[in-house]
Model the fold of this input.
Amino acid sequence: MDYNFGIVQGRLIQSPEGCLQWFPQEHWESEFFLASALGYNFIELIAERQYNKRNPIWTDEGVEIIKELCSINKLSLYAICNDYIIDHSLIENKDVLQQTIMLISRSHLMGIKKLILPLFEKSELLENNFDYYKEYIETIANCAQEKGILVCLETGMRGISLLKLLEYLDHPNIKCVYDTGNRVSFGENLYSDIVLLGKNIQHVHIKDKDELNNNVLLGSGKVNFYKIFQSLSLIQYNGSYTFETYRGRNPIRTAKYHKSFIEFFIKETSEGDDRL
Done:
């Protein structure tokens, strides 16, 4: 069985101290060769928390270079995450909505299939502010649908609340991201939430976190990956996985280990063991 594995942009190159989510600046092109050599299928591109004119997604020339790099390395252009909305409120500034609409247009030029909206911090989506976000999220979803791009919401809400939101929005082009590390850090029952959300889960972020909420090597934190993949198997999830993981001392060695680690648990749980 083939798996659609991606890795977040910047995770294959050592970042400056204290930077987890980081665009690899002048080294960004090399990641496409590294990802291909390690057997990954795509790099999940990022639009950074602060606008960066050096990020190639914002220029036609940059988009063409990205497409060429993917073609050379047999990678797909599959997903992009708009981190900009984490530091800029989606509902308090019309420019932020326009930035997202522009990102959809740029993503369409690249042939990207999924737009991840991380609704945290300045754009934190909660059960008591659904109404404020509804119009904005629907506008984004409609625009993305016209371009053939699925919108996947990433939130900190409990599974039952997220399900209520998706039912409230009732939009065919809005689904959700399931992030293993974020969910465990919020103290939720990761495994029952997966079953509850079912087919609404259309993208999975893989990470592990420790008791201090630090992103750590897979298998060294609080996430029980056997149960995660057992639950995903129960809902017959066959979508994509993006490694949003800790780099370790050597990002290449770490990425290789993480991929093997997750492949083991997918295979182990696909054999039908019903232990929970």
